[in-house]
Amino acid sequence: MGKYIILLLIVILSAATSSAGEASNSPSSSTSGTADDERSDQMFAGSTAFPARYTDNEPFASAIARAERTSDWKGHVTGLIVPHHLLAAEYIARGFRSVDQNKIDNVVILFPDHFKKTYLPFATTKREFETVFGTVQTNADFAGRLLAEADIVQDSDLFAQDHGIGAILPFVKYYLPKAKVVPVAVAIRSKRVDWDHLVAAIEPLLTPGTLIVQSTDFSHYLPLAAAVKRDQETLNVLAAGDPDAAAALLQPANTDSRGALYIQMKLQADIFHATPWVIANDNSQIYSDVPQSRTTSHMLAVYQPDSSDSVGQDSKDSDVYCFAGDTFFGRYIETALANPAAEQRLLRETKGFLGHCPLIVNLEGVVLHRMPHHLRPPLLGMKDNLTIRWLHSLGVVAVGLANNHVHDFGMDAFRKMTGRLRRSGLIVLHPGKATKVGRLSVVALTDLDNFSRMSSGVICSKELKALARRRFERYVAFIHWGVERQSTPTARQLRLTTKLAEAGVGLIVGAHSHTRSLTLVLSGEAHHVLTAYSLGNLVFDQTSRFASGAILETRVFKQGTMFSRLVPIPNYFDLMRQTVSKR
Length: 583
Known about the structure:
Blueprint: H1 2-23, H2 27-32, E1 49-50, H3 58-67, E2 79-82, H4 89-97, E3 106-112, E4 122-124, E5 128-131, E6 134-136, H5 140-147, E7 153-155, H6 163-166, H7 169-175, E8 180-186, H8 192-202, E9 210-215, E10 220-222, H9 224-240, H10 243-247, H11 258-272, E11 275-283, E12 295-304, E13 318-327, H12 331-337, H13 340-354, E14 359-363, E15 366-368, E16 381-383, H14 384-393, E17 396-400, H15 410-423, E18 427-429, E19 434-437, E20 440-446, H16 461-470, E21 475-480, H17 491-502, E22 507-511, E23 521-523, E24 529-532, E25 537-539, E26 549-557, E27 562-569, H18 572-582
Parallel strand pairs: 1-5, 2-9, 3-8, 3-9, 4-7, 13-14, 13-25, 14-17, 15-16, 17-18, 20-21, 21-22, 22-24
Antiparallel strand pairs: 2-12, 4-8, 5-6, 10-12, 11-12, 13-26, 19-20, 23-24, 26-27
């Protein structure tokens, strides 16, 4: 009898040692685990419910208390990206706090199989889960239909010990007490063909009441500077909404589960037509005063189908800036603004959308103290008092003066305009000069000039070399380029994008075409450059038959990374005209 007991102890000890060895390969598991890591899968075989992965509710209760003191976002949430590193437990709480519990009845949780327990690409279970806040039920029918995909999905007991699910379930129970879960462990070695297979299996099972939670940490095994670089690549991939680029990310240098990221992106785009809004991005280094050579990065993001209702919402984790395209207060805009109802309509519509977001615009034309009696096309002039009043009303903090109309009335008028704008408190972005706007370094460039020998193709190698020498952090190129009425890039723009990427630019923001781009585009080696080829118009006297516009909201996180999202706006000139015609 004694030898059987000894043999049993050896088996248990061996299993525990194996699990601990695999866990030590992951920074997130080494910092977020407890003594429960030593439990073996076999100990839970046949149980009705998995025991609680964590038995102390303090990390969860304190994170919930901190989350209650924040104010993040509103709207219907269809997906979350949250960490499973309990150092960042507040991010998990804030993510779930944003979800309307009355709208959610199922929670699909995607997470990496940290301990490599599944021999198939994916695993799930029909069993329930105990947590420090009570029992979480599993949607057995949903899980059963996934298990019917027997070539890629297996039934497993791995859920007993993996912090990828264990760190999330207490928050599910607290914030969504009536919801059922569908846990999906994604094998580290799974491939894109497997991910597409699972997407096809899950899509028919999703309902409007389904929340998809991606439980992943991001850059692993890297010191802070290298982690920040990898995080920026991942943030650009999220901003562009590009699953192909997600599949090409490095694992674990970018994320601990490319598969979970890819599946989330596909399901949100295909089923919910939702886009991500990254609220926070930081690194475990911030929790230690001692430099760490192996760190873990965290992100908090929400997916919303209706995320275009507003921009510029405050967050304690970031500073936010908004870029807008061509802005002009002369000609027919001036005429429309003479009508009080149209003026109030413009102010109400823009402020309701922009909130208090610091705005950076391309000021198209020349601000003049005295307007000429007759302006021959295509000269663009606008009254100084009217223009400056409206720039301040809209929350503009910086104006770009790199465009093809700034010299319409000569160099003397250009210099006087610059002085007036500066005296009014606005930051002036001179052509070719890098200027600090908050935490951003912005350089305004124009590839078009109506009064040069070359009306297009103006940017030269000298300017690009000057940019390369500066190498500013958070370098943004605000550039006037392209072809009117065309939002897709020309061959010239693509070449310039490559040159700007080589010069150290991380974000390219375009204007001139009066037509907005539909998506953000990745370029550069390892996706380190994000480009909005055209923001179209903010306020300009062109109707929607000709013109459209968008705002580029850019968040700068404390560690220096940026997340941008492109949000369409209505044609404000049309709205003013409609108001005038109704009266």
